[in-house]
Design goal:
The complex is a heterodimer of chains A (233) and B (216). Chain A contains 6 helices and 12 strands. With 233 residues, chain A is α/β, with parallel strands linked by helices. In chain B, helix 2 packs parallel to helix 3. Chain B has a 10-stranded mixed sheet. A 3-stranded mixed sheet of chain B has the order 7-6-9, with no helix packed on it. The chains are: A alpha/beta (233), B alpha/beta (216).
Chain lengths: 233, 216
């Protein structure tokens, strides 16, 4: 691998434990995925074992059944969740803690959630969106009439960590994704101070076609290769 | 009177989606519309989770957990389909690039307000998903729902009693009884769908005044 005297950028971490060791209590953690597609299940399992508490979690949902984000919530590690669609037939861990008043919910329309995350990564201080104008979810928010339409002011969502799942990565942290598992990955990667990507495969520099890199390595701090544990259909 | 069943409703909506349209079908009843799009018409289906060009359901055993729709059901991708991230996906919606969206609803008002995310019950856990973005973003917002609640009251109303998803955004409603447009002055009957239903009876069942202008 070249001249050993020259330091090399290497974002590969050997284990998810090492990649998440420094997540502190009270951190804001974005978790990629839409349902199970793109959900970094092994990183979430590792975060549960790591033990950080009082987390604020940003995800589209509030967990399904007993695995992944649902398990993190069920373990009582989450203080607040920002999401668009918490209530599902199998979101029982969320439902129970929410009804008990032990979990704060900030419900955000899905497009506003995505754009607030994008805005954080893009250095935008706020934006006006037509979504939710005149509804409960815009109550108390600043509004503006622009060019004949009504808009609601929304602010970016920044995070300390983003846990995402991608398909392939090189040691500079360049990422490609697979199908609809891309979803929130690219925007969360840009919005967090420390983005940790679990990937199916790691490759040498130059092996990823630069035309197909979706998340450039500048947005990624840590990469862990994990064989995906695909559930039997 | 013979009401339309869900499949017949889906088929009626599908008839009105033209060649070349970019369309988002909401979760639940609207998803059925995909099964009835006229063969030979090229229509491009969008889903919030970052895909254009959704194809038919995969055969059993061919599902791919990385390829799903907004309802988290496995789908396939047509030749010509594309993937993109969530912010781009909602940029397409809010940016007025979708020709149609089809949404389910609890209520639609004569002003075109839609309520479909929250019953307002104090113990309900609200969930909104992409409904508010679709309601303000699609060029044509179509609603597909039963005309009456289980208790028999009209879901087409003068004013929504449930919390709104979007204000003044619905263009047309397809129910198991009729197709109804929403114009500046309220509900306009386009077509009665239920066999043996008269205009007077529909007007009696409907929660707000219904205008009808015989085809010119």
């Amino acid at each position: 691998m070249g001249d050993n005297s020259r330091p090399m950028i290497n974002k590969f971490f050997a284990t998810p434990e090492a990649a998440l060791a420094d997540v502190p209590d009270g951190a804001t953690v974005m978790i990629g995925g839409f349902g199970n597609a793109g959900m970094p299940a092994e990183l979430i399992d590792c975060l549960i074992a790591q033990g950080a508490r009082e987390l604020t979690v940003v995800n589209n949902n509030a967990g399904n059944a007993d695995a992944g984000l649902a398990a993190l919530i069920g373990a009582g590690r989450v203080r607040k969740i920002l999401c668009s669609f918490p209530r599902q037939a199998d979101s029982w861990h969320f439902d129970k803690l929410y009804r008990a008043g032990k979990l704060e919910l900030e419900l955000v329309p899905q497009g506003t959630l995505a754009e607030r995350i994008r805005a954080a990564g893009a250095g935008i201080g706020g934006f006006f969106t037509p979504t939710a104008f005149g509804t409960l979810l815009a109550e108390g928010k600043e509004t503006r009439h622009i060019n004949g339409r009504d808009y609601v002011l929304e602010y970016p969502i920044h995070a300390d960590y983003a846990l995402i799942k991608a398909d392939r990565a090189d040691r500079w942290g360049n990422l490609t994704y697979r199908k609809t598992a891309r979803n929130f990955g690219p925007i969360m990667a840009a919005a967090a101070k420390c983005t940790v990507a679990q990937v199916r495969e790691t490759v040498e520099l130059g092996e990823l076609d630069p035309e197909t890199v979706v998340t450039p390595g500048i947005f990624v701090k840590r990469v862990v290769r994990l064989a995906s544990l695909r559930k039997a259909a | 009177m013979k009401k339309l069943d869900r499949k017949q409703m889906a088929a009626r909506v599908a008839q009105d989606i033209p060649e070349g349209a970019y369309v988002n079908l909401g979760i639940g009843l609207p998803t059925l519309v995909a099964d009835f799009l006229p063969k030979g018409r090229e229509i491009i289906l969008h889903s919030e989770n970052g895909v254009l060009g959704i194809g038919p359901r995969p055969a059993k055993g061919e599902e791919d957990e990385d390829l799903i729709n907004a309802g988290k059901e496995p789908v396939t991708l047509l030749a010509g389909g594309a993937y993109f991230h969530h912010a781009d996906s909602f940029g397409m919606i809010r940016g007025r690039h979708l020709d149609y969206c089809v949404l389910g609803a609890f209520q639609v008002s004569a002003a075109g307000d839609i309520a479909n995310w929250h019953t307002g019950a104090p113990d309900a856990i609200p969930a909104v998903g992409g409904a508010m973005d679709l309601a303000v973003g699609a060029k044509q917002v179509l609603v597909m729902m039963e005309h009456l609640t289980k208790e028999g009251s009209s879901k087409l109303v003068e004013r929504c009693s449930y919390p709104l998803t979007g204000a003044r955004c619905v263009n047309r409603v397809y129910t198991d009884l009729a197709v109804i447009d929403i114009k500046a002055d309220g509900f306009h009957l386009v077509e009665i769908l239920a066999e043996g239903l008269s205009f007077d009876e529909l007007q009696r069942l409907n929660g707000a005044a219904l205008k009808y202008r015989a085809a010119a």
